[in-house]
Amino acid sequence: MKITAVTPLLLKGMLLVRVETDAGIVGWGESSPMNAQVVAAHLNHSLAPLVLGHDPFEIERLVEEMFVKTYKIAGQTQAMAISGIEIALWDILGKALRVPIYQLLGGAYRKQIPMYASSTRRDISPQDEAARLAHLVEDKGFRAVKVRVGQRYGFDTDAAPGRSVAVVREVRQRLGDEIEIMVDGNSCFSAPRAIQLGRRLEEYRIFHFEEPTPYQDLDSLAKVAKALDTPIAVGEQEWQIHRFKEMMQKEAADIVQPDLIKAGGFTACKRVAALAEAFGCICTPHQTKKLGTIATLHFVAATPVCRYAQEYIIEPQPIGDRLFRNPVPVVDGYMAVPEEPGLGVALNEEILSQAQPLTA
Q1: Model confidence over 215-245: pLDDT tens digits?
Q2: What's the confidence (pLDDT) of residue 155?
Q3: How would you classify residue 2: left for phi > 0, otherwise alpha for psi between -120 and 50, otherwise beta?
Q4: pTM, whole model, 2 decimals?
Q5: Residue-level pLDDT at 360
Q6: Which of 37, 103, 111, 247 is the most buried if burial means most Cβ atoms within 10 Å?
Q7: Are 109 and 301 spatial neighbours (Cβ–Cβ below 8 Å)?
Q8: E strands in the chain
C-alpha cells in the first residue's frame, strides 16, 4: 500500500487532513486550525512530498522524517501539520487491519473515558457560567468542569474586575463539593499574581490551575507550582519532547497536557505520556476539536497514566457538531472509545462538501 494524496480541508473552526492510498483506504486526521493557511502550506509543500509514495504502515519512520528533514523550519505550525498526517496514518492502519486505533496503541486500559465540561468563555457573568455548568452536570453527568480566569495573555488583568475569584466561588456554591473545578489562566499572570490568585482559589478546592503564567516561562511556572498545593497543568502549546523533559525536570508541571493535533499526533504524545509517568506526573491531553477529541479517546484508552477526566468543550460548534454520522455522546460524564476500525467514526459527507481544499 502506498500514500497517493495528502489534502488539507478547511471547515469553519477545523482543519481536517485527508490521506489517500492506492488501496482505496482513506485516513482522516486533524491539525490545529490556528493560522490554517500557514499550516496547510506546510502540509502541501514541506510534508506531503516526504510521505507520498511511501507505505502508510511505516509511521515511526515517516514521523521522524517529517520532523528531521524539515528541521530548518521547525516550529509549532510544522508540528500541527505533522499531527494531521500522523493521525490519518493511524486511521489508515486501523482500517486496513480492521481494528480500532486503541488496540494498535497497546489495547484498552479503559474503554469508558471520564470527561470534564470545559468552558472557553470569559464574556459571561459568574452567575450565568455557574448556571450553565450546573445544567450540564445534571444533563450529561459531568463530575468535573473547567472555567477561565484572568484574560488570555492578559498581563495580570482580569476579564472583569474581580471575575476570576467570583466565577470560581459561584461555580463551587452552585455545584457543591462533589464536583471538581479546574481553572485555566491561558498564560495570563506573572508568578507573584498567579500565586496570590491561586491561594485565594484554593479556598474553593480547585482541582488544577492551568497555564497560570506564560507557558514558555518554565521558571515562573515552577515558582507557582512550588508555592501552591493545587496541581499546575501545562503543555498544550508544546511539541518538542525536550521541552516536556525540561518542564518536568524543573517541576513546572504536575499535570502534563500534550495536544494530539498540535504536538505531532499519537507518536509524539505517547512519548510525552511515558516521560510523564517516569517523572511522577499525570498526563491529561488538551483538546478542543472534534476529530481530535475522537483521537484523544483512543489515546487515553490505551495510556494508563491518563488517570483524570479529559477535556470536552461545551461551546456550540455548528459545523463540528454535525461532522460525524455516528457521533460519540457524553453519557453519565463518560465517552466510550469507538470500536469501529481506525478512528471509528464516519464523517458526514454533507458537511465535508462544505470544506475548502487548501492546495495552493
Answers
A1: 999 999 999 999 999 999 999 999 999 999 9
A2: 95
A3: beta
A4: 0.97
A5: 65
A6: 247
A7: yes
A8: 3-11, 14-21, 26-31, 112-118, 144-148, 180-184, 206-210, 232-234, 255-256, 282-283, 310-313, 334-336, 356-357
Segment 88-115 shows an average pLDDT of: 98
Is residue 117 within 8 A of residue 314, CB to CB? The reply is yes
Give the CATH number for residue 222: 3.20.20.120
C-alpha cell at position 250: 524543573
In terms of pLDDT, which residue wins out, 35 or 282? 282
What's the residue count for the chain?
A: 360
Domain encompassing residue 18:
3-98+347-357
Q: What's the distance, CA 24 to chain centroid?
A: 29
Band the pLDDT of 357: cuts 50, 70, 90.
confident
Given a contact cutoff of 8 angstroms between Cβ atoms, the answer to whether 148 and 119 are in contact is yes
Q: Any bridge partners for residue 312, and if so which?
A: 117
- In which residue are the cell numbers 482513506 written? 26
Question: Is residue 107 located within the same domain as residue 94?
Answer: no
**Distance (Å, whole) CA 84 – CA 90:** 10
- Grid coordinates given for 317: 460548534
The number of distinct structural domains making up the chain is 2
Query: If pLDDT is split at 50, 70 and 90, which confidence band does 263 have?
Result: very high
Q: Which residue has the cell 473545578?
A: 181
Q: How many CB atoms lie within 10 A of CB 257?
A: 26
Rg, Å, the chain Cα set: 20
Q: Are strands 26-31 and 14-21 parallel, antiparallel or unpaired?
A: antiparallel
Partners of 30 in the β-ladder: 16
In a domain, 171, yes or no: yes
Residue type (1 letter), 103 = Q
SS3 percent helix, strand, coil of the chain, rounded to 5, is 40, 20, 40
Q: What is the DSSP string of 53-100?
A: TS-TT-HHHHHHHHHHTTGGG-SHHHHHHHHHHHHHHHHHHHHHHTSB
